[in-house]
């Protein structure tokens, strides 16, 4: 399970360019970092147009928390169902982001 919006690398770079207040040389270096990461697709809980809108850190953290909990619950339920076990038999869940 991944977030619902699939963003290709070139679209993300185009959207970020005008948002980064750095010189052209530095901007080219930042874009090279994206290229060298070899990430072809990124997934997001927001469409690209909304990712670029300003929001407070509190709003960003709330969005992250709510989305992580929603996705985590869905994945956990799917895994438990696929394994044919109850959540009661799980002692520990380890996550990362």
How are the secondary structure elements laid out?
Layout: E1 5-8, H1 9-16, H2 24-36, E2 41-44, H3 48-51, H4 57-83
Antiparallel strand pairs: 1-2
Could you explain the architecture of this structure?
The protein is mainly alpha-helical and 97 residues long. Helix content is 54%, strand content 8%. The two termini are 14 Å apart.
> Fraction of residues in helices?
40-55%
Q: Write the element-wise H/E pattern from the N-terminal end onward.
A: EHHEHH
Q: What structural category do the secondary elements indicate?
A: mainly alpha
Number of helices: 4
Instruction: Name the strands of the widest sheet in spatial order.
Output: 1-2
Keywords:
97 residues; mainly alpha; two-stranded antiparallel sheet; 2 strands; elongated
Describe, in short, the structure shown.
This protein is mainly alpha-helical. It has helices spanning 9-16, 24-36, 48-51, 57-83, and strands at 5-8, 41-44.
